[in-house]
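Sample entry (246 residues):
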Amino acid sequence: MMMNDMNKENEKHIFNNQNIAVGIVFFLLGLSFTTWTSRIADIQQKLNLSDGKLGSVLFAMPVGLWVSLAVSGWFIKKYSSKSVAVWGLILYHIILVSIGLCSTTIQLVITLFLSGLFYSAVNVSMNTQGTLAEKKANKTLLPFFHGIWGVAGFIGASVGTLFIKNGIPTTTQFIIVASLGMATILLSKKYLIYKPELEKVGKTFAIPEKSLIILGVIAFFAMICESTMYDWSVVYFQKEVYNANN
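Predicted structure, serialized as tokens:
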């Protein structure tokens, strides 16, 4: 009986309004990201980009990521992870629609740079939120939140496939996802964790230790592989699989 009460209490800590709100941030970021990646081949075709040119254009997003990583900590320290997560997601969804509206290569480069900028800001802030949730519940929750991102990615890719199959335009898909995403974050933002006193510790910029640098190098090459998979698998299936069967 006592064990059942303890289990119920643990579930109460995990599935409360704040943790659900944090999970929503992870979900929306994963959904929006794979919404974009599911339509890369269509955007390539729309702008008549060769594979080489597409590769150069796509590089704008990781550049935005790198720039954002250098300043995201400062913004969180100054404005709180809650504010950065909410406004970052809103801007990220606006940029998602802008990607669909691009009519020139330079427009796509600029929007992809901004997309990387806001994606990274939300990524850092949502993991900060996840860490705060762990401290409050006194249990490991980040793997659970990261799992939500993965589920959202699968849903985003599946929805993108469905939209492509039914001939729904890229911009229409982006507007639908962005509208739902912004409405959801605005409805759930009041439940996000606001603990600025816990986020204003340590230096904004610091030289990392050797072990952290090594870990960063490993993560860098892992992200290259991950990015290659996201960016080019859709192009491959569109050109080599779908076109070959039709």
